[in-house]
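During data preparation, we tokenized the protein backbone, and the record follows.
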Amino acid sequence: MNILRNNISFLSIVIIIILISLTNSCKLFHPDDDEDKQTTQRIAFLRDRDPDNELYNDNDLWIMDMDGTNQHQLSLDLNIEEYVLSPDGEQICLKAIPTNFDYFDNYYTDLYIINIDGNSLQKLTASDVYYFLPIFTPDGQYLIFNEEKYFNEFADIFIMDINGNNKTNLTSTDSIQEFIYDINTDGTQLLIKSYKLREQTRQELYFIDLNGVDKKCITCDLDIVLYWHIKITPNGKRIIFTNGYNSMETINIDGNNHEIVIQQPLTFYIAKILISPDGKYILYQEPYNSNIYKIDPDGSNNVLLTTNTNGWLSDISDDSQYIVYVSSPYENENLPGQIYIMNQYGENKIRLTYNGGKSPKFQPIKKS
């Protein structure tokens, strides 16, 4: 009888250990009920129809669950270069190349909008110019984008309704390049970079109203030449950017209180910056071995999250808990990259795709 009791007790302990292990392994996608942040976001991504063709972007839009399941295609034969999801996660704006394009003769793009379920694809633009850098206004009612009449020529900024109507030019210059980088939290002003075409000796950052009238320089008093990776912080109070290629810095939105977050050696090139939605940390990447780093906004706690990623940092979940990125095998760089997910500490790395994937982005959670 004692032996039977001991066996039952031992079996109970084993079952409890197994249940605890299963619970911990599922925590990446199913957090405890007492956590007040939602983590069940789907992930949109691009997949190349012809990975062997390096010249053309034969990309279709796909979507999947956070654990890599339920992958399905949303677009067909659009040759997508980039895309952006609406703030409510219900629509996607696509920048695509027409099927009859020629990179060396007649390179232009079109903007499309499509529902998150893949229905109601609508072409928004005419195929005669190069469109790029589309963003939604915070209310999801308008699209703002850059337009070049001739590729690598003068760039202007436009705004239009999400159905393609009421297209309006916000900037119109013959010798100035102006690129949109972000929009402030209340959706009233655009953050743009401006410089003289082919004279990139001095760049400046400006805020401009959505009517294109009120334009204010916020960096004219700073001794900075080149700005890259420009973003407004989630609280709307600061701007983060790289000064040149190796120094990450911030300023107030009025141009005051200039601070350095981290300054790397001149041989270190910061290739991308992401700010967590809660504003508590910053991710950045250097391209030579594609390592991903995490740092606090004040420059402390600089931590290496990945080694030898050979890929690209892509997005952070709405609750700031998870990171998606793309990784390719070093032993065969001709193989397509695959999408991975990890928590914000660089732990629990999970491969999500096995047939290629790039540019993954979390579908925003619709605000109630």
